[in-house]
Amino acid sequence: MNFKILAASALLCAAACAADKPNPELEATLAATLAPYAGKTVHGVDASTLTGKVMCGYQGWFNCEGDGADRGWVHWVKSKGAPSPANVKVDLWPDVSQLGPDEKFSTEFHHADGSVAQVFSPFKKATVLRHFQWMREYGIDGVFVQRFVGGARSPSFQRQNNTVLAHCREGANLNGRTYALMYDLSGLGAGKMDEVIEDWRNLRTRMKLCDDPAYLHHKGRPVIAVWGIGFNDKRAYTLEECRRLIELLKSGGCTVMIGVPTYWREQKNDTVKDAALHEIMALADIVSPWTVGRYQTPEQATKHAEKLVKPDIAWCAEHKLDYLPVVFPGFSWHNMYGTSTAIPRLKGEFFWTQFRETKRAGASMIYVAMFDEVDEGTAIFKCTNDVPVESPFVTYEGLPSDYYLRLAGEGAKMLRGEVPVESPQPKP
User: Fold this and answer.
1) Architecture of domain 52-415
2) What angle do CA 41, 46, 49 make, to 5 degrees?
3) β-pairing, 54-58 with 142-148?
4) What is the rounded distance in angstroms from the CA atom of residue 374 to the CA atom of residue 127?
5) Which terminus of the chain faces fewer neighbouring Cβ atoms within 10 Å, N or C?
6) Domain ranges of the chain
7) Is the pTM here over 0.85, yes or no?
8) Cβ-proximal residues to 339 (8 Å cutoff; 6+ apart), any chain
9) Angstrom distance (rounded) from CA 417 to CA 76
10) Per-residue confidence of the chain (428 residues) as pLDDT tens digits?
């Protein structure tokens, strides 16, 4: 056996021993929710490489009262109770017209015709499988499944997140898509990195996550993403803790992608000014700068690609790193924060411009933020123009609910050179 893998296993065991005292409820939850995949696998996209792929972020963090997770309403609301004008958190409203009766959950909102407005929960397997079916139908390669680890020692957290991850795994296998895990360190407390390590140990040894045929590999190794390294927003965890995590993942035989701030190269604006950041990046394999909100118009997106993406790619090539740029369709968080701050979609022009200019800058892979993020108005999955009447919501400006799925699929063709980079924006 490789000595590096043995060393990684020793570190993982040490982290497990250092964790909190045994929690019977947590252990029972892990036993119930972590199991290797034993279902059918349909051949589709090539899961052996990230090159040439358009991957979306998949939050999967929504819950509804009665969905079986016993968490009540989560992420649809800012406070307790069903979504209502007083506590709604999201800015887009999902199109649930294709969902089955047991996949829809009623809110206190109403559509213009007086009917009750309903939402979904990814705790329901049928809903997640349908999302992956949409990815297949529209030519989206797969997703990075988000995993926020601030509550990794919580049975409730593990039940929700492991269940949604298992749904994504099945959806990818049944629809010929690929997926990878992305740890989002946002909200992680000081000195808690061992909980991330322990969580990864459970996913890899109990769930056999990386052994799944649909799990994304790159350069011969399974991909694991760690998002939230180098931001200057006073995060509780340190760069040294991040370094330790990256070293462990690398020694365990993984290809590591790290999510960093927009201005990571020059270490300004949203980025900590610390030489350790570039040292940590040198340990990784793929760099993905977070750019949501950093530009607001097609013209600014074009300038961003020329002034940042192109030199970023050159820097990464010099340091033998791959580069995964982020594109997004628009942005809004009126209901979340009561602000008018928004980045208009311009009927897809903003999104399509980013695909075109990112490809021109030399990108060989693209990350779409996000597939299902209705909180901040960045979702590309099916959302309705028939929004509830009691509060303001962002719409798709009269476009079909599947239009942004189509744009993402056409953007993937452009990325791979199947259509010219000069191709006009697809019509609705």
Assistant:
1) Alpha-Beta Barrel (3.20)
2) 130
3) parallel
4) 16
5) N
6) 52-415
7) yes
8) 333
9) 39
10) 343 333 444 444 444 444 456 799 999 999 999 999 999 999 999 999 999 999 999 999 999 999 999 999 999 999 989 999 999 999 999 999 999 999 999 999 999 999 999 999 999 999 999 999 999 999 999 999 999 988 888 999 999 999 999 999 999 999 999 999 999 999 999 999 999 999 999 999 999 999 999 999 999 999 999 999 999 999 999 999 999 999 999 999 999 999 999 999 999 999 999 999 999 999 999 999 999 999 999 999 999 999 999 999 999 999 999 999 999 999 999 999 988 889 999 999 999 999 999 999 999 999 999 999 999 999 999 999 999 999 999 999 999 999 999 999 999 999 999 999 999 999 99
User: What is the per-residue burial (b if ≥16 Cβ within 10 Å, else e) of 313-334?
Assistant: bebbeeeebbbbbbbbbbbbbb
The Cα angle at residue 183 between residues 178 and 184, in degrees rounded to 5:
120
Do 282 and 233 meet the contact criterion of CB atoms below 8 Å apart? no
If we measure between CA atoms, which residue out of 197, 165, 166, 281 comes closest to residue 18?
197
The string of DSSP letters for 52-89 reads T-EEEEE----B-TTSSSS--SBSSBSSSSS--TTTB-
Query: Which of 333, 318, 343, 345 minimizes the C-alpha distance to 404?
Result: 345
Q: Which of 352, 347, 369 is nearest to 292 (CA)?
A: 369
CB 414 within 8 A of CB 370: no
Contact present, 308 and 301 (Cβ < 8 Å): no
Per-residue tokens: 426: 């697809």
SS3 assignment for 197-247: HHHHHHHHHCCCHHHCCCECEECCEEEEEEECCCECCCCCCCHHHHHHHHH
